[in-house]
Specification:
Blueprint: H1 6-15, H2 26-43, H3 47-56, H4 70-81, H5 90-102, H6 112-122, H7 145-156, H8 162-169, H9 177-188
């Protein structure tokens, strides 16, 4: 069972200061989740921490550019919601907090769950034009060229990942992505 409930996702998205479809928004979170689950299966990382990391690591960004401290703000937000919208034991929460806080610092050493979280995010760097490089990744599977290539392909897809569209649809004020695409096409014609 996933740690990510609709209520948790809705709460996090509702407070996100940037555009939900932006480079640090729901599509990125969904790709980090995909990457993280794939890596956790091979690494033995704590899946619930990896899932929560995908949601919280960039959720308190105030800018798509340099935004020092955004990871720690995301970790603090997770602390606020812990016990109410998700459950995580103390050791798991310590891992989540550290993973969020330090995810932009370039670390490659640490607990396998930390390394899995960081690689899940780094594998999605191509969305901003940065090719993930094996030497900056910290898990064995993430360093495999086939995994990097697949992540690059996901990062460059023009369509919103289905999971991200579902998440955004949880917000009352936004219709699901397929409806918006039809509206846009009809206006262009």
């Amino acid at each position: 069972m996933s740690a990510l409930t609709p209520r948790l996702i809705q709460t996090v998205l509702a407070q996100f200061a940037l555009h939900h479809r932006g480079i640090h928004g729901a599509a990125h979170w969904a790709r980090v989740l995909h990457n993280g689950r794939l890596l956790a299966e091979a690494s033995g990382a704590r899946v619930e921490v990896v899932e929560l990391f995908a949601l919280f690591h960039d959720c308190r960004r105030m800018s798509d550019g340099a935004d020092w401290g955004h990871g720690e703000r995301g970790a603090e937000f997770a602390r606020e919601l812990r016990g109410e919208l998700f459950q995580l034991d103390d050791s798991g929460f310590d891992l989540l907090y550290e993973a969020c806080r330090d995810h932009s610092d370039g670390h490659v050493e640490g607990d396998v769950t930390l390394r899995t979280c960081w690689d899940a995010d780094r594998l999605d760097l191509y969305r901003v034009g940065i090719r993930p490089r094996a030497r900056f990744l910290c898990t064995e599977l993430a360093r495999e060229q086939r995994v990097i290539d697949a992540a690059i392909e996901r990062s460059t897809e023009w369509r919103l990942p289905e999971l991200a569209a579902e998440w955004i649809a949880l917000l009352d004020d936004e219709p699901p992505a397929p409806e918006r695409r039809r509206e846009r096409r009809s206006r262009v014609r």
